[in-house]
Amino acid sequence: MQAGLEGIGIAVPTTYVELSELAVARGVAPGKYVEGLGVTRMCVPLEDEDTVTLAARAARMALQSAGCPPEQVGMLVVGTETAVDHSKPVASYVQGLLGLPTNCRVFETKHACYGGTAALQMALDWVHAGSAKGRKALIVCSDIARYGIGTPGEPTQGAGAVAMLVSDQPRLVVFEKGKTGVYSKDVMDFWRPLYSKDALVDGHYSVQCYLDALAGAYRAYQEAAGEEPAGEGLYSDRFAALVYHVPYGKMSRKAHRHLRTLDGDTDPDASFDRLVGSSLVLPSQVGNIYTGSMYMALASLLSTSREDLTGRRVGLFSYGSGSCAEFFSGVVRPEAQARVRSLGLEGLLERRRKLSIPEYEEVMRARERIDEKPVRDAPGTDFRYQGTRDHKRVYAS
Ligand code: CAA
Predict the structure, then answer these.
(1) Would you say 324 and 182 are in contact if contact means Cβ atoms under 8 Å apart?
(2) At 54, is the secondary structure helix, strand, or coil?
(3) Could you give a GO molecular-function term held by this entry (predicted)?
(4) For the chain, what is the domain count?
């Protein structure tokens, strides 16, 4: 039995900041953010957007684009590190907003940016084991990345959600059963204390932890996959594309250089545009979305690559600080690229409104109190966070 992605959906906030303008405001050369980090724009959520509304919008797109009625969903998992409650999962709100059935397993997973991959792997096992019985799993990665104004991490913020419909009828990507390599280690590279909305990070150490985890997971993948995928030359040339977790574009470049060096490539940057370039088009306009970053990069590859990827193998590397990482692979299905292109993801990003730097700073300050915001009507007809009443979050749908 095959298992993989039948549909995908993306949601991003309606506003963004231009990184070159942020650099000027911080007294930094724009080249540091745009070329040095590889980020052009980053999404900024307004007061009526949170992890729940982003997740619900992405999930609705995934269901609608696959033509899947809500009653076919038998499992809903939201991977996030931006929870809205210590107890009630984001997934329960999403279930309510989308009208998913009651005979559905609903919960949240957490392990920094790896939380969504943990959920995806669980869903694939659920399908392979036959427990799905023809029903589908909805896996949603939704996060708001925050480091705070004036911190080194500030230009690597972002917000957004990616939803994936997982089933035994994959029309986008079939994930290769058993071909995964895992690496985990207790490290203190990035964390988000319960008392803080902003993440704390040991920035340069986190880069090293990511690269160590990549080496470990890639080695474990090769052991698990054996001689497959077969081929001559460098191991990573057996993939048509490599999709890395993207906290910022330059991290993918560092990752690729590391992986090719492990392969014995003496010119490790030469293959970057060919194997990685298309996966960074959308992430460079969105910023870090934590759990969803690698899946946004996968959507970017399918949406923007000019190569015909049909039947070709893609390597995926997911990294969650703290840490847990996984390297796994999938094969692109016929028509997958046309299906993802028809979602109009680049147009979605174009329709956002730019915030000036003072406007962005005001939004950041307002979000510090967002969990206690009194209920008031939010404009628009889409899913909106309206505030809290009697300590309960209220959403417009
Ligand atoms: N023009 C072009 N490039 C320039 C430049 C200029 N004028 N000025 C500087 N640069 C380059 C630097 O050479 C450097 O490139 P290299 O890394 O290739 O050497 C790059 O810009 C960044 O410069 P610095 O290293 O000096 O930047 P920094 O110390 O201010 O911060 C950071 C960088 C550590 C990544 C920081 O943004 C940060 O802490 N980010 C959050 C943590 C993070 O994303 N970690 C990634 C791994 S962990 C993970 O992946 C999980 C997750 O999602 C968080």
Answers:
(1) yes
(2) helix
(3) hydroxymethylglutaryl-CoA synthase activity
(4) 1
Instruction: Please tell me whether the interface predicted TM-score (ipTM) of this complex is above 0.95.
Output: yes
Phi, psi of 34 (to 5 degrees): -80, -50
- CA dist 390 → 83, 99, 195, 373, 394 (Å): 19, 24, 21, 11, 10
> What is the spatial distance between Cα 154 and Cα 143, in angstroms, rounded to a whole number?
15
What is the rounded distance in angstroms from the CA atom of residue 163 to the CA atom of residue 90?
13
Report how far Cα 318 is from the mean position of its chain's Cα atoms.
9
Q: Strand pairing partners for 190?
A: 201
The pTM assigned to this predicted structure is 0.98
CATH of the domain at 160: 3.40.47.10
Q: Whose CA is nearest to atom 44 of ligand 1?
A: 247
- Which pLDDT tens digit goes with each residue over 137-164? 999 999 999 999 999 999 999 999 999 9
DSSP code of residue 85? -
Cβ burial of 273 (10 Å; 0-12, 13-18, 19+) is exposed
Domain that holds residue 183: 4-396
From residue 94, how far is each of 107, 124, 291, 391 by CA, in Å?
10, 21, 17, 18
Instruction: Please work out whether the CB of residue 31 comes within 6 Å of at least one atom of ligand 1.
Output: yes
